Amino acid sequence: MTTVAYCAVAPEGRTEYGQLWMRPQALPGLRRLTDAIHAEGAAASAQLGHAGPVANEKSTGYRALAPSRSFNPLSMRMIRSASAADIARITRAHGTAARLAVEAGFDAVEIHFGHNYFASSFLSPKLNRRTDSYGGSLANRARMVLDTARAVRGAVGDKIAILAKLNMDDGVPGGFWIDEAIQVARWLEADGSLDALELTVGSSLLNPMYLFTGDAPIREFAAAMPQPVRSGVQLVGKRMLHTYPYRDLFMLEHARQIRAAVTLPLVLLGGVTDRAGMDTAMAEGFEFVAMARALLREPDLVNRIADDAYTKSLCIPATSACRRSSPVPAASSSPTAETVPSALPRA
After folding, report:
1. Mean pLDDT, rounded, for 119-128
2. pLDDT of residue 74
3. Is 163 helix (H, G, I), strand (E, B) or coil?
4. 195 contacts 266 by C-beta, under 8 angstroms
5. Which residues make beta-bridge pairs with 49?
6. Which residues are CB-neighbours of 317 under 8 A, at least 6 positions away?
7. Which DSSP letter does residue 207 get?
8. Residue 280 half-sphere exposure toward CB, CA atoms < 13 A
9. 140: part of which helix (H) or strand (E)?
10. Distance (Å, rounded) from C-alpha 107 to C-alpha 35?
C-alpha cells in the first residue's frame, strides 16, 4: 500500500498554500491517482490531518491554530489559541475528509496524530497549556485525538481501513513522551475506532531531525523554503535542526514498548531499508513496516526485494541526498485548482 501524504482536512490545515486539501473539487484528480495505483496491483491510503501550529500562515493565507497561544519560529508569527468551536470544526472536518477519501477510491486513511501537527500538539504538555477540558491531564490532552478517531470511524464505517500515525516521543523537553504515548495507545485500542497504529517520533515545529536522523542540512532546507520561513530556518536552524546518528530501525526501541502494551496491529517506521529489517520487525511482533527515504531513492525497491531477498537498498542516511536524488518534486500542487472559502479568519 502506498500513502498519499499529506492531505489537509481544511484550507488552514495545509502547511503551505500548494499542498493538497481534501475537498470535492480534488476528487477527479485523486480518483485518477487511485485508479492508477490500483491498476498496478497496489492499495492506496490517504494521510489526513491538520497542520495546526506547523502551518505557514503567510503561505496559506489563514491564521494558524494551536492549543495555546505560542510563537512559530519558522513563520516568525504568534499562533492563536484554537477555540472550542475551532476544535469541533476540525474534528468534524476529519470525518468529512475521510468520506471524500472513500469517494476518491482510497482503500484506507491514516489520521495524522504526530509531529506536533494540530492533534499531536494537544498531546504535548509543552504546547498545550489550556485550562479547559482539552488541557491539563493526559486524559484531557488526548480528548481531541480520541474524538477525531471516532469522527472518522463514524463517517466511513467499515468501508475502508483506518490507521493513525501516533507520536511516541516529541524529542522536545517538556513534550509528549513514551510513557504517555503508551497510555494513549491503550486508550485508542480500547476505543475501537482504529484498525492499526503507525508509530513515529519528532516535532516538525521544534525538532524535525529527531524523526529523520542523519545529517541536518540547514542551508539546503533554508534555500528550499519561501520567505519568511527561509529567514526563520537561517536564524533558528542550529537550535532546531540537530544531527542524530542514523541506524537501521531507529524507532524500534520506543516501538517495542508500545508493542508490549497493546494488541492493536502496529506499523514500524524508521530506517527500514531491506528484507533483513522487515524480517526483524515481523519477529518483534509488528504486523507492517513503512518505508520513505528508501523509496525516494528507489521507487521499485519493494518489488526488487520480493524478487530477491538479498537486495540491498542504495539509500544512504543523508537527508540532503534525498532531496537531490528524488524523482518526486520537492513540493507539488493539488490535482485541481484551488478554491478557497472566505468563512475562516485570514492571516
Report:
1. 98
2. 65
3. strand
4. no
5. 8
6. 213, 214, 215, 246, 271
7. B
8. 18
9. helix 138-141
10. 11
Q: Measured in whole angstroms, how far is the alpha carbon of residue 311 from the centre of its chain?
A: 29
Predicted local distance difference test score (pLDDT) of residue 216: 65
Per-position b or e across 119-148, b if 16+ CB within 10 A of its CB: bbbbbbbbbbebeeebbeeeebbbbbbbbb
- The per-residue pLDDT for range 41-53, each reduced to its tens digit, is 999 999 999 999 9
Give the HSE-up count for residue 192: Cα atoms under 13 Å, Cβ half-sphere: 3
Residues in the chain: 347
pLDDT in tens, 88-104: 999 999 999 999 999 99
Q: Cell digits for 132?
A: 479547559
297 Rama class: left (phi>0) / alpha (psi -120 to 50) / beta: alpha
The architecture that CATH gives domain 2-325 is Alpha-Beta Barrel (3.20)
Q: Which residue has the cell 494521510?
A: 47
Integer angstrom CA distances of residue 23 from 12, 263, 323:
13, 34, 29
- pLDDT at position 169 is 96
3-state secondary structure of 298: coil
Angle between helices 143-156 and 178-191 (to 10 degrees): 30
Does residue 117 have an active-site annotation?
Answer: yes
C-alpha cell at 189: 485500542
Distance of alpha carbon 153 from alpha carbon 261, whole angstroms: 23
Indicate the domain borders of the chain: 2-325
| Active-site residue, from 6, 17, 117, 134 | 117
